[in-house]
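FAQ: What does a multi-protein file look like?

Like this. Sequence, then tokens, then the next protein.
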Amino acid sequence: MKNLGLLNWLSKRKLTDEKVANIFVNTSLEIVEEGWPKIVELMNASPEFEKPPELDPKDYGRFLMIVVSANLSLVPKHFEPGVDRAIIKRCCAKFGRVLGVPKEDFAKKVKEFKAFMKKVNHPSTNSVTAMTKAVFYKYHLIESQDEYFRDMNVPNPIVMAGLRDVVTTFYWDWDEVICDNYKVVITQDDVKDSNQEEILA
């Protein structure tokens, strides 16, 4: 998500966890809604598949969860303890409101997707690779592959490489938020929540 320019207007200002969450939620929803059809087009037209996967341009719910879960899992690596929990809590609450689900349920879903990506990506710890593999398995792309890769239950490396190039654009650049021009502060003290705590584990 580099070079989006969405943080320029905040230059040299203090950021709150609330503002960070607003930026992350709004941007994630926008780029997923606009970007998923491009992934669908790429996958449906890929000659490496034995049969077209017939992905739906409007079926981006699972991809949204992949993008959000992967990027939220990076928060503790870039923010101080306490601030990271506050940001995650805010994000889950805002996504919950937008999607019409309780924030606890959304946080639980994030935890499940995070665990799933860690499992399918083992032993790698690369977040972009984890997102790419998650798309393969969550959208059942394995079933559209030729017999060799289908029986092995692994993505075709050629398709993986092309998909990974696209998925990279959905990787959030948290360093842009915490550069020298920004300092993130917590707006309230009630940052503890069991589900959000588990996401950080």
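And here is the next protein:
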Amino acid sequence: MPTYKEHGRADAEVIVETAAVIVCGAIGLDTSGESIPYIAGWGERNDVEAIRHYAETVDTIARTLESAVA
């Protein structure tokens, strides 16, 4: 799991929240009204760039969470 020490708070928040959006979407929950602005608010850099940079980490977390809720 990402830590603030490893990634800094802003990137860790982007990573974990993006994974949560993926999992919530997979089970039919729409969190875009809350989560997308939250993720964007944490971007020290462009949030899309941060998501791309950490895509593998986000995917690993999302798959782990999806397995837990399935």
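Q: Is there any per-entry metadata?
A: Some entries carry free-text notes. For the entry above: DSSP finds five helices and no strands in the chain.
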